[in-house]
Design a protein that fits this description.
The complex is a heterotrimer of chains A (162), B (795) and C (211). Chain B has 795 residues and is of the alpha+beta class. Helix content of chain B is 27%, strand content 24%.
């Protein structure tokens, strides 16, 4: 590959550089070039949502992006949803409280998606919570406890603000 | 008294790691490995004429290109037929790389190894295979007709024919006052876990040993298969299942071609090699399940009692039969559910088609069997004008008839004998939960408003905890921590928590001092695997057996140290003490130290076990006769038979009079899986199963065209439910413990999915007023069925 | 394994025969060849630098020519070993007249490849062998037809007394007149073949190291 590009971006608050060919997917760059394997690849065609990361705060499917297209951006992965001291962030804590994961493979995509969602809509109803996660596939949980996790995350965030 | 954790909905201990992105799934490890990719057949049935790799040679980073010609010895032979059966007279398994012929789209022909996956795929794209395309056999009808064959040496495309019977069904039917015939069909679906398969192999030439990580449900069996295929001594092969992103049955088959080939490449190239499949590969080269066509004759009396039942069915097993005929055997035996027809005969043919091979998908043939039986019960109720729950209840095996012998052989080769269950009680709970008796009024009200609502009911019995055995190892370390290992695997069932609960309670230690390892042949070498809802039943009891031995030994050693009778001792939060005398105590950590007489101390605590620390009885050896050093033990659980869980589901649907869209109004579950170790984990399993049941009833189907091309080999076109398609699930449960194991556990893993198709068919029939005989059903199919029914009624 | 192939060389058989027997020609046209040294009658030792991905190494090969029937055919026996593996090959080469004063060359090799290189798969080995043989013949053809530019070159001629050692110049194809193709008793295309089987696409394999 002769077309190697130099990229500079912020990942989970840390400035990182990458040297990648144009065709390198963002999911592969995060997982293999930066060693952040928390983002998972379930389908490589943008349907399952397991690869969801936040680019400048907005959820995107990293399997549908080339790494070169996030040059200069700020990317947040599931690892970046933890607290600065490494403990679980509110969404992650909520999933733990509500048994919102089983195999855990789809979970990072839900965590980032819900993190972005609650920033926009901090007090969702149960109906809204269910709609908010309707773009991510889970094969294990039947979604019951994930919906509960959204509501619990809202509650934890509310308690933290108080 | 120690806090009991058994039966408590403890939050899972594996979650923080998985939630913070610190999981280690297959593709998360092996970053320095070479990457493998495959050239797979684009044709459903073809002869391979030539393979030209010339253009691929220019790809940078190319390391190797392998075809069948390169495979040595046993690797060049077909892959193993895992479960032979006398009825499987024409079993066939694939070669690791296709030899002369390919039999389904997706079959692997060439393996490429390169510096990374992108380059490997570049090379694959440039390899040109020349085929002589042959006409394929697609679908059960074509397979039965057999004008074309999948395998030249398999007449009629029939892999197996099997009959099981109890009593004389034909005579019973002939003598029945009423007889009904039904034709019922289930379409093909698949497990489709979010993580596909993957293999990462490392060969160490210094000690001639192989370590393989595989996203598998059966690491011990993979080890055995790899050792056999690669000609290695089994004790030189280790197989580890890392974190696995779901299995649902598709990862039970082994060895996949990729498991043997990636391992062999690692040895041959003396390099680490890794392969993970992409989603399309998973669709066309893993496994599917469910496609069956059934013909039923049922004889009954005017009160709705089953007098005789004859079932014939045809099972599509795809191009090969590595898993034998387990799925149709499960259908044949589990079809009976909670009922006791006086005479039963079931016959099936397992047929080849030029499609992906078929191995269990959660339920493993039970969903089809349940669908068939429950349609029969609804048909009887409709014929007699009886309440559908009432008809079922009249045919239940009663609690006082347990254990109940059906006179058939189950999938474990053992008699089909239900051990316990209270079906009337389960039904009572379900009727109460869903409001069965009050629904008729609601239905009429809705009809008056021009709406169509219906309620469905379905009952199932599930044989869980099949053998032959599982084992567990428990050890108390000298720091008081407890390590537990078992050989079967985990794909999200919370084993690290549930198994820890079992060990912690028996040993009397805090839960957070217990760590559990599953699926790693380095830690436990004898195991079978995770399938058939057996993990907690089997490994739970094996770990319990091991923990009890450890506890007994601890009490003996502590008794010596405290000069007390072991029977007066108890263990609370990791401290052994004389009951009622808390000052006479010794921590388990010290007991562990004392259990291993030392010459050399390695820390202050261990000094207590050295030769000059304690007065020694000069006539007694330091390690007593028949004992071993260390506070550890191994236990096995090997039951004579499976244990039978059961459940009943009810669903309320509303169908749109115009668009025929199907809306789920309520979904209720009552299940009985015996003693619950962690109710939260069990409930989660039920939820997940129900979602797959919804999928199987309304969305999931594999669509093959006449050329054997899989038309919907992606998540865009193979529809699985999102959160908006799965209703709120209302659950209740009862516990009839299993008399077959000390913990009283039955399995729950497949409980949620088994009655899915049956219950939705029941509800939609109720809403529409005509029978539903084929699943899954889409709105457009319902629309056409309505038309057909109206036309038939008008004639 | 068997490797067979053919090539058309644009010169009469006698000149082709001479070129294939000329170490000065061969040392420049065999991909990766660094040195050719006569070590006995009809026996030469070749040193070839070869590699694929990160498997690189220097191979030393002995080549022996037998059954010489000028200008029709000969048999070459090659055996070489290096860190990445070993090769043993017996190659029959036949030359026949073709149209327009050209020569049809056919080769038929029986080779056994061992070691790590032997593990990369038959089709890959055969494919690489044929490809590189094709490059070799094209290079020899360039020499025969004088298509190469004349540039100053380091002389690649015998230095001193026997044993004769021929060293490859730097990568430029050295121009050569027909007259400069003197005969020496080594053999042809099939050092190429031996060298080729060992002589992986060095330049192209320079990249592609795994992470």
């Amino acid at each position: 590959m002769t077309d190697v590009h130099e990229l500079a971006l912020t990942v989970n608050g840390v400035p990182r550089t990458l040297r990648v060919p144009a065709r390198r997917l963002l999911s592969d760059a995060l997982r293999h070039d930066l060693g952040l394997t928390g983002t998972h690849v379930g389908c490589e065609h943008g349907v399952c949502g397991a690869c969801t990361v936040l680019v400048d705060g907005r959820p995107v499917r990293s399997c549908l992006l080339f790494a070169v297209s996030v040059d200069g951006s700020s990317v947040t992965t599931v690892e970046g949803c933890c607290e600065p001291d490494g403990s679980l962030g509110p969404v992650q804590q909520a999933f733990w409280d509500c048994h919102g994961l089983q195999c855990g493979f789809c979970t990072p995509g839900f965590v980032t998606t819900i993190t972005a969602y609650l920033d926009e809509n901090p007090e969702p109803t149960a109906e809204e919570a269910r709609e908010a996660i309707a773009g991510n596939l889970c094969r294990c949980t039947g979604y019951q406890n994930i919906v509960a996790s959204v509501l619990r995350a809202a509650e934890i965030r509310r308690e933290a603000r108080v | 008294m120690s806090t009991r954790t058994m039966g408590e909905p403890i939050a899972r201990r594996e979650d923080p790691r998985l939630l913070s992105g610190q999981g280690h799934y297959l593709d998360d490890i092996g970053h320095t490995a070479l990457a493998a990719a495959f050239v797979r057949s684009p044709h459903a049935h073809a002869q391979i004429v030539d393979i030209d790799v010339t253009d691929a040679l220019d790809v940078d980073g190319l390391m190797a290109i392998y075809t069948h010609d390169d495979l040595p010895d046993r690797l060049a032979e077909p892959l193993p037929l895992l479960i032979p059966h006398p009825s499987l007279t024409h079993g066939r398994t694939p070669y690791a790389l296709a030899k002369d012929e390919v039999n389904h789209v997706g079959e692997a022909i060439v393996m490429v190894v390169a510096a990374d996956r992108y380059l490997a795929e570049d090379a694959c794209d440039r390899i040109r295979v020349e085929y002589e395309v042959l006409p394929p056999v697609v679908g059960i009808a074509a397979a039965r007709e057999a004008s074309r064959l999948v395998h030249e040496d398999v007449p009629g495309n029939i892999a197996a024919t099997m009959v099981q019977e109890n009593g004389d069904a034909a005579a019973a039917l002939a003598a029945s006052p009423r007889v009904l015939e039904l034709d019922l069909e289930v379409e093909r679906s698949a497990s489709t876990p979010l993580e596909g398969k993957g293999v990462y192999a490392r060969w160490d030439p210094a000690d001639a040993s192989l370590r393989v990580y595989s996203s598998t449900q059966a690491s011990t069996s993979v080890r055995a298969a790899l050792a056999a295929k690669l000609g290695l001594p089994p004790n030189r092969v280790e197989v580890v299942a890392p974190d696995v992103g779901g299995g649902f049955g598709v990862k039970i088959v082994h060895p996949w071609p990729e498991e043997v080939l990636v391992s062999w490449a690692a040895i041959t190239l003396s390099r680490e090699v890794k392969w993970t499949e992409d989603r399309r590969e998973h669709f066309v080269s893993s496994a599917h399940e469910r496609s069956q066509v059934h013909h039923v004759r049922v004889g009954f009396d005017d009160d709705g009692h089953l007098l005789g039942l004859e079932v014939s069915f045809w099972h599509d097993n795809g191009a090969y039969t590595p898993y034998g005929i387990i799925v149709p055997i499960v259908t044949a035996t589990q079809l009976l559910g909670p009922y006791k027809p006086a005479a039963y005969r079931v016959e099936f043919q397992s047929l080849y088609t030029n499609t992906v091979l078929v191995t269990p998908y959660r339920g493993a043939g039970r969903p089809q069997g349940c669908f068939v039986m429950e349609r029969v019960m609804d048909a009887i109720a409709a014929e007699l004008g009886f309440d559908r729950a009432e008809v079922r209840e009249r045919n239940f095996i009663q609690p006082d008839e347990m254990p109940y012998d059906h006179g058939l052989i189950f999938q474990d080769g053992r008699p089909l004998i239900y051990d316990s269950g209270d079906y009337p009680a389960t039904l009572r709970k379900l009727k109460k939960l869903v409001g069965w008796d009050e629904f008729g009024v609601y239905r009429e009200q809705a009809r008056a408003e021009g709406r169509r609502v219906g309620i469905g009911i379905a009952c199932y019995v599930e044989g869980t905890g099949v053998g032959p055995y599982e084992g567990g190892w428990v050890k108390v370390e000298t720091d008081g921590s407890v390590v537990v290992a078992t050989g079967l695997t985990t794909q999200g069932q919370g084993h690290q928590t549930a198994f820890a609960q079992v060990a912690a309670d028996i040993l009397g230690v805090q839960l957070d001092r217990v760590s559990v390892v599953t699926g790693d042949t380095r830690r436990f070498g004898y195991a079978v695997g995770t399938f058939a809802s057996r993990a907690l039943v089997m490994s739970g009891n094996a770990i319990a057996a091991a923990a009890r031995k450890v506890r007994d030994k601890a009490l003996r050693i502590a008794g010596d140290a405290l000069e007390a009778d072991p029977r007066d001792l108890e263990i609370i939060d990791g401290v052994v003490q004389v009951r009622g005398v808390p000052t006479s105590a010794i921590p388990l950590s010290t007991v562990a130290v004392l259990s291993n007489p030392l010459r050399y101390a390695f820390d202050t605590e261990s000094a207590r076990a050295t030769q000059f620390a304690l007065p020694a009885d000069p006539d007694k050896p330091p390690v007593p006769e028949g004992e071993q050093p260390g506070l550890e033990a191994t236990g096995y659980y090997s039951p004579p038979r499976a244990t039978f869980a059961n459940g009943m589901h009810a669903v309320v649907v509303e169908t749109d009079p115009d668009t025929a869209e199907i809306r789920i109004v309520r979904y209720c579950v009552v299940h009985d899986c015996g003693t619950l170790v962690n109710p939260r984990i069990v409930e989660g399993q039920v939820h997940g199963g129900v979602a797959q049941g919804v999928g199987g009833a309304l969305y999931e189907r594999m669509v093959y065209d006449d050329d054997g091309q899989l038309l919907n080999a992606s998540f865009m076109d193979f529809l699985m439910p999102y959160s908006t398609e799965v209703p709120t699930i209302e659950t209740d449960h009862l516990e009839t413990p299993s008399p077959l194991n000390p913990l009283g556990i039955k399995g729950a893993g497949e409980a949620g999915v088994i009655p899915g198709m049956a219950v939705f068919a029941s509800a939609i029939s109720d809403a529409e007023g005509f029978p539903i005989t084929r699943m899954p059903i889409s709105p457009s199919e319902l629309f056409h069925l309505r038309r057909a029914h109206e036309e038939a009624t008008n004639r | 394994m068997k490797v067979t192939g053919s090539a058309v060389l644009h010169a009469p058989r006698e000149r082709v025969w001479s070129a294939l027997q000329d170490p000065a020609v061969l040392v420049r046209t065999i991909p990766g060849c660094q040195q050719l040294e006569q070590v006995g009658p009809d026996t030469y030792r070749a040193t070839v630098l070869a590699g694929v991905a990160s498997i690189k190494g220097t191979y030393s090969g002995d080549v022996r020519l037998t059954d010489q029937a000028e200008p029709d055919s000969f048999v070459l026996h090659a055996s070489g070993a290096g860190a990445p593996g070993t090769v043993n090959a017996d190659v029959r080469v036949t030359l026949a007249d073709a149209d327009g004063g050209a020569t049809q060359l056919d080769y038929d090799a029986d080779a056994v490849v061992g070691g790590v290189i032997g593990g990369v798969g038959q089709r890959m080995i055969v494919g690489v062998a044929k490809k590189t043989a094709g490059e070799f013949f094209a290079a020899v053809d360039d020499v025969l037809t004088g298509r190469e530019e004349r540039i100053l070159r380091e002389p690649s001629v015998a230095t001193g007394t026997a044993p004769e050692v021929f060293t490859a110049p730097s990568r430029q194809r050295a121009p050569m007149s027909a007259a400069e193709m003197s005969s020496a008793a080594i053999t042809g295309a099939l050092i190429a073949l031996a060298g080729v089987v060992l002589g992986w696409l060095i330049t192209r394999r320079a990249q592609g190291r795994p992470r």
